[in-house]
Amino acid sequence: MALLLDDRLTRAEGVLLILGILAYVSLHLWLVLVRRGEPDLVEQENTAVQDSRAARHVLFVVAGLATLVLGGYFVVHGGVELATAIGVSNAVIALTVVAVGTSLPELSTAIIAAVRSQGDIVLGMVIGTNIFNILAILGLTASIRPLVRGGVGWLDLGVMFSVSILIVPFLWSGLRLGRSEGVLLLLGYACFSWWRLAA
């Protein structure tokens, strides 16, 4: 948000964001290396290596990702055409239709992980994806060609910032997001989408 005070992301700022994602990934790789010697992790690692089905699991992951990406493309393409036909602005399309379309693969993965009681996968994926989107995607695109804020308003940025801060106390309630918090977040997104589409 600070970088957008002049209503644009320059190439230099894009490079700065790229350095940010490199630092973030390097930090986590270093933390993994530091913890590699812990007994429980060594045991898990040995178990994974001995699993003869590992190659098949990798194939499933790759095939699943390819299918989800293809489905996301069709959702985004069709949604953009529909929104353009009814006269909705590019910013609204990006904030609603495109955002939902590109997030469908994550939603599918999150639902499966939640059903299997793997909440750490869900939270890690959502937080990690947003960090990657802001630092890597915005950084790469801005370093290729400067980006203009355009129709993405300060209220949109404020909502994004507020929701990010709001998640923290939710997680403090027993270090979990319960069903009531989940419903509240869904209602909040529905209100935001209605407001943007009706504006």
Task: Using the CA coordinates, give the radius of gyration.
Answer: 20 Å
Percent of residues in helices comes to over 70%
Strand content: under 5%
- The DSSP helix count reads 7
Which term fits the overall shape? globular
Largest sheet, spatial ordering of strands: 1-2
Summarize the main sheet. 2 strands, antiparallel
- Series of H and E elements: EHHHHHEHH
How many strands?
Answer: 2
Distance between the termini: 22 Å
Provide the residue-averaged pLDDT.
Answer: 82
Uncertain regions spanning at least 5 consecutive residues: none
Number of domains: 2
Structural class: mainly alpha
Overall description:
By secondary structure, this protein is mainly alpha-helical. It has 7 helices and 2 strands. The protein starts with 7 loop residues before the first strand and ends with a helix. The mean pLDDT is about 80.
Write the layout of secondary structure elements.
Elements: E1 8-9, H1 11-35, H2 39-50, H3 54-85, H4 90-115, H5 119-144, E2 147-148, H6 154-172, H7 179-198
Antiparallel strand pairs: 1-2
Helix pairs in contact: 1-5, 3-4, 4-5
Descriptors:
199 residues; mainly alpha; 2 domains; two-stranded antiparallel sheet; 7 helices; 80% helix; globular
Gist of the model:
The chain has 199 residues and is mostly helical. It contains seven helices and two strands. Helix 3 packs antiparallel against helix 4 (90-115) and helix 4 packs antiparallel against helix 5.
